[in-house]
Amino acid sequence: MLASPRVWINGSETSFLNVFDRGLSYGDGFFTTALVRNGAWLNGSAHLWRLQQSTEKLHFPALDSADLLKQICASYAQLGELNTHSLVLKIMVTRGVGGRGYQPPEPSQPTLIIQWSAAPSDLNATPPLTLWECQTPLSLNTATAGIKHLNRLDNVLAKNELAHLGFSDGLMCNARQDVICSSQANLFLLRGDELTTPLLHESGVHGTVRYALEQLSVQLGYRWREQPVQWAQVLEADGLFLSNAIRGIVPVAALHMADQSEHHFASESLLDIARIGAYFDDYQSATAISLVNEIGR
């Protein structure tokens, strides 16, 4: 097991970052977090899509996916026998050092940070969750909505709220009272043959599992719907589940509302959610990027 994280910055193993880096000063950057199982980067193409989209929307220099993969493989190989375990891969890209105040440098020289850490020990034992109705709101910003940028204070404050109340996760709304996501995952509602997820044009993050499920929805027998979601729709759903790249599909058993009422979802929906989870896991395993094979190229 990887006892502590190991970090490579611009190709060199080090945990020392220039204090003038814009990622530290302004959160000027983006990241993705992925699961690597036995040398296979699960759902890797979705993570590469996210990084490319973030590069374009934040006006960073073009990302060389081949060079990025080469650096990921090089760092992975240096883990030695530790790379046989399930690992969490975090890729961060900042705009680097320079510029005057908020004004970015032209041209910029991005900083690439690759971090490896051990996967959670309870990765395959996540029971159905009871979620809290978070009172911490999500920010509204059409320019950055969908991007997993380095400004994650909304999520930090939500996690602080949850920790004080004893919940592991909760659902968050934006200032328009649209239900958007949990503090760390995308949200999905099941109702009949519809698979609904909140529209993320003003708030939230386009998750990599969400990206894959949109493509898989027809094969799973669901009509994909992306729309604004209100609390009434959440409470009327047959079932609810969350998704993120590390834990995959996580079912929701109940919601604990701020008025102290509690809403439980039909237990029958757990079977449908388990089927979706199994199908997605097979998909991400079958389409994984092999870091072992890439090393030898």
From TrEMBL:
Keyword ATP-binding (UniProt): no
Enzyme Commission (EC) number: 4.1.3.38
Entry keywords, A to Z: Folate biosynthesis, Lyase, Pyridoxal phosphate
Enzyme class: lyase
MF GO annotations: 4-amino-4-deoxychorismate lyase activity; pyridoxal phosphate binding
UniProt key word Lipid biosynthesis: no
Catalytic reactions on record: 4-amino-4-deoxychorismate = 4-aminobenzoate + pyruvate + H(+)
SUPFAM superfamilies named in the record: D-aminoacid aminotransferase-like PLP-dependent enzymes (SSF56752)
Superkingdom of source: Bacteria
Cofactor: pyridoxal 5'-phosphate
One GO cellular component term: cytosol
GO biological process, one term: 4-aminobenzoate biosynthetic process
Pathway named in the protein's UniProt entry: Cofactor biosynthesis; tetrahydrofolate biosynthesis; 4-aminobenzoate from chorismate: step 2/2
Stated family: Belongs to the class-IV pyridoxal-phosphate-dependent aminotransferase family.
Subunit comment: Homodimer.
Record's protein name: Aminodeoxychorismate lyase
Organism: Thiosulfatimonas sediminis
